[in-house]
Amino acid sequence: MISASDRKKAIELIDETIHAGARLKPSCGEVGISTRTYQRWSKSTESMEDKRPIAKRKPPKNKLSIEERIEVLQIVNNKEYANLVPGQIVPKLADQGIYLASESTIHRILKEEKQNTHRSKTKEPVKRVPPTHIATAQNQVWTWDITWLDGSVKGLYFKLYLILDMFSRMIVGYEVWETENAEYAQILVKRALLAQKISGNPLVLHSDNGSPMKAATFLATLEKLGVQSSFSRPRVSNDNPYSESLFKTMKYVPTFPNGGFATIQDAREWVKKFVHWYNHVHMHSGIQYLTPYQRHYGLGENIIKNRKLVYAMAKDKHPERWSGKIRNWDLPKYVSLNPIREEELQGIVEVSS
């Protein structure tokens, strides 16, 4: 359903285009409504209100009678069926030559009677809210993870610990060790904070639910450092997308050794070269093809300004080759860990700007 405020906004936009010389039908098509809908909404303020939620409708002909409804409630609350879901109750009754209502109808009746609860001893499913953080500048939200690097011998692996700034995509800390350990994670975070010179500043550190990430000693260290910990939902890798995407980029670059690393020193040397390439050479598509270093240290504005100028000059030189405006090179004002509603997003951006 379209709210009254959205309907009013649509009418204002259409009226504005009509006054500018546009025709009614194409203008309505741009906002996704018909001319008849425009005419109905334009009549009065009351016509903009959606009456469907408060409309009085005749009961459907196939609606259960009061007696049938009571019978359904009596049976589903019977001791024999109390722990069964409607999907089991209906066929069980059918085997006895009884049919009262469909599964969806029984679910609806239970919901209306506030009885649509968990009907067995198993643990009730928990709906977890996706973790969402917004970064409007560098060093506000970091994400980190651990990936395994193959050794030259089967069964040998080295562990790469890596911290990424979500806003700029810059790698702000990395280490390679032989094992996964909370102590190593503490060292990595401390070094990254010192390197960025942000000790004591508000910071969110997001990760998955690995044992080093949730170790009590590591969480205690974060608390002492003033860093807020954040975790993905269990078994949902999409909640840590920036770190996962970085690991894929790393393992698919042409220079990545398919045969594995002979020693941990070899792994550290290669990772050091990769981090330099990624931060200073690699042009990232998520930040308008700037390097993460340029984005992190505010060097991108002049570069983007120059690109816009080059494109404008190219269009002026050969306007026949351009069907519309030049490419949008504007940098994103914010980066979110998980999608959130546009209203909330705009509110956060306005507060931070």
TrEMBL record:
Q: Which GO terms describe its molecular function?
A: nucleic acid binding
* Region annotation Disordered: where it falls in the sequence: 41-60
Query: Where does the record place the Integrase catalytic domain?
Result: 126-300
- Coiled-coil ranges (or none): none
Gene Ontology BP term (one): DNA integration
Matching PROSITE patterns, A to Z?
INTEGRASE (PS50994)
**What InterPro entries does this protein map onto?**
Integrase_cat-core, RNaseH-like_sf, RNaseH_sf, Transpos_IS3, Transposase_IS3/IS150/IS904
PANTHER family the UniProt entry points to:
TRANSPOSASE INSF FOR INSERTION SEQUENCE IS3B-RELATED, TRANSPOSASE INSO FOR INSERTION SEQUENCE ELEMENT IS911B-RELATED
Could you tell me what this protein is called? Transposase
Task: Name the source organism.
Answer: Clostridium tagluense
What lineage is this protein's organism placed in? Answer: Bacteria, Bacillati, Bacillota, Clostridia, Eubacteriales
Gene encoding this polypeptide?
tnpA_1
